[in-house]
Amino acid sequence: MSEAALAVGGHSIDAPPIELQGVTKRYDRGTLALQDVSLAVGAREFVSLLGPSGCGKSTVLRLIAGLDTPSEGHIRAPALATASASADTAFVFQDPTLMPWASVFDNVWLPLRLAGRSKSEAMASVRRAITSVGLAEFESAFPAELSGGMRMRASIARALVTQPRVLLMDEPFAALDEITRQRLNGDLLAWWQSAGLAVLFVTHSVFEAVFLSQRVLVMSARPGRIAVEVRIDEPTPRTPEFRTSLSYARACREVSQALEAAHACDGSRS
Fold first, then answer.
1. Residue 161: helix, strand or coil by DSSP?
2. Cα gap 27→32, rounded to integer Å
3. I need a labelling partner for 189 at 20 to 30 A (CA). Which of 27, 31, 133, 263 fits?
4. Mean residue pLDDT across the chain
5. CA of residue 40 relative to chain centroid, distance
6. Of all residues in the chain, what percent carry a pLDDT higher than 70?
7. Rounded mean pLDDT of 141-161?
8. CA distances from 169 to 136, 137, 197, 270 (A)
9. Which of 134, 135, 196, 129 is nearest to 162 (CA)?
10. C-alpha to C-alpha distance for 243 and 206, rounded to whole angstroms
């Protein structure tokens, strides 16, 4: 791989924790997933990625998490700095991926256990994370005993227990009913602000992206690239009333129009 394709981990104190510059990803079989993607997510910033299915949103997250490598371009992110910095990045998937044979406590303890912390050493941190997501009464419960929303809360607690700088989320609420999803949207914003995280959130929902984000990045059809940036200049924390406001409707219309234009792209560049 050329020097241009190497991920760059070092950063200055004022640099955004996530930065992609001219990133292209072509898979071994020739599929061009991403082309010339540049984006940044600042400290304590909440940014959503929105775009057509197959445009490379999840690929962007995987590259930032160090689960894959770019074909060209530069990436700066905590997970790529050093092996010891991997705990600075947490990844929440659409499927909660909880261990079915383990309690909520043991599932949340997992990343700390893998880092070498005993149950007694991790006790306070694990219980604090479980309490923060509203599952204090369920730390001994098993995943099969929880609702879908509660399983996702446990998954988020497992992500937050390491006190990461960066939180990557890949459609975490897509499988939930609308009421549960809206409640978790509000709670997620509270967790984000409390922990001071840089969040990059992938979703297919215009309404969710506008409610959560300070900026929405709309990607084009494959090969994915950033087509439009929409700023959501509304104060946080966002309240349920925001969903019925004229400013929310305007922002949703602007993002929807950008998404329709992205869908219209034929993705023929190679």
1. coil
2. 7
3. 263
4. 90
5. 13
6. 90
7. 96
8. 23, 25, 12, 28
9. 129
10. 12
Q: Is the bond preceding residue 237 a cis peptide, omega within 30 degrees?
A: yes
Q: CA-based Rg of the chain, rounded to a whole angstrom?
A: 19
Which domains are seen in the chain, by residue range? 3-264 (3.40.50.300)
User: What is this structure's pTM?
Assistant: 0.90
Q: In whole angstroms, give the CA distance from residue 86 to residue 78.
A: 7
* Residue 266 clears pLDDT 70, i.e. is over it: no
Q: Which two tokens stand for residue 198?
A: 């840089």
DSSP 220: P
- Grouping H, G, I as helix, E, B as strand and the rest as coil, residue 14 is coil
What's the rounded Cα separation, in Å, for the pair 222 and 20? 18
> Strand, helix or coil at 172?
coil
The rounded distance, in Å, linking the Cα atoms of 73 and 118 is: 40
> Mind listing the pLDDT tens digit for each residue in 210-248?
999 999 999 999 899 999 999 999 988 889 999 999 999
Helix (H) or strand (E) run with residue 242 in it: none
Can you tell me the distance from the alpha carbon of 172 to that of 28, in angstroms, rounded to the nearest whole number?
28
